[in-house]
Amino acid sequence: MRAADSSSWRHALLYISPYTFAAIGIAISIGVSVLGASWGIYVTGSSLIGAAIKAPRITSKNLISVIFCEAVAIYGVIVAIILQTKLESVTRDYQHTAESMRAGYSIFASGIIVGFANLVCGICVGVIGSSCALSDAQNSTLFVKILVIEIFGSALGLFGVIVGIIMSAQATWPKAT
Amino acid sequence: KFAIASVFMWTAPLLILQAYKRDLLPGFSSLSPEVQTIVCGLLAVVSVNVVIAFYILSAMREPPTSTEPKPDPEFVSRARASVEAL
A26-87+95-168 falls under which CATH superfamily? Predict the structure, then answer.
């Protein structure tokens, strides 16, 4: 092995602690999910408030869109709590074994999956919710049809959460023998 | 109603996750750790969706309100007159 390999990028990446990856994954799962949820809520909320000036009847039904966006944030919280319970301490000797690295990468990947799926889901539901409020104000028969589209949009976040949970289920750390 | 639904949406999954942590869920300890994680996570997600479904049902059942503002008739007649003058 060349002497330069010990200072290569590959060496640096491989020797980052798996706990770093796990912690970043947990942060991304909650942080980016809340980003998506808040984006959706402000897009929907501003349209809803504007449309409700002339048509106050739309307020109670169109809060469903805000509820969908909030659910996106809750999915991020659920997965962050599950990932946090998966963190276990291992001794220094076992920190860079294959099983530890696998656990760290699983938690990291799970956080990225959930975070970014919820980000796009929140934006999607927010934009659809905004259109729903504006069209409901004009014609109340359109509400149910647009709600169906919103339900499909919300399912995108669910796909990410399910895959993230399955991914995190196999995060096991080595036991000291 | 929105506030109550929000509170339930937050507390239901957190209660399920706490029950899983404290081994309060019956029959859980017989499952492998991977299956426990998956089942607990899916239960929490399903509880959120159940709350959403209840909120949608209750919102759709609300009677329609007739509180829409009516335009001022004098304003409407003046506006119509100005359009016809064009």
Answer: lithium bound rotor ring of v- atpase (1.20.120.610)
